C-alpha cells in the first residue's frame, strides 16, 4: 500500500527470490536480512545485517529488525487466535497479492498455511 501511496512501482515477485528488483530502495538487502532471520541462519544473519548496515546504517538495521519481529509476532497471534481475514478490501488485497506472487494454484487451506 505504501508503494501505491507514494506512486512507486513495487514488484512483489521479489519476495519469491531470484534476480527480481522489488523497486524498494535497498530491497535486496532488506529481503536478504528478512530471509536470514526467518531461516534462523546465524551466518546469513550476520552477513545480511552487515550488508544492510552498509546500505542503511545502524538505525536502518534496527528498524528492519523491528519490522520483522512485529510482523512475525502479530501474524502468529492473529493465526493462533483464529482472527478471520476481513471481507472486502483486506481479503481482496490479500488474494490479489497472492495472485501476483503466483499462488493462484493453491487451495484456500494451502494459502492459509503459507
Low-confidence stretches: none
Shape: globular
Please provide the ordered H/E string of secondary-structure elements. HHHHH
| Secondary-structure-derived class | mainly alpha
Description:
There is one protein chain. Helix 2 crosses helix 3 (42-81). It is globular and about 40 Å long. The protein has five helices and no strands. The chain is an all-alpha fold and 114 residues long. The mean pLDDT is 79. The two termini are 21 Å apart.
In short:
The protein contains 5 helices and no strands.
Features:
single chain, 5 helices, 114 residues, mainly alpha
Topology of this protein?
Blueprint: H1 2-6, H2 27-39, H3 42-81, H4 89-100, H5 108-112
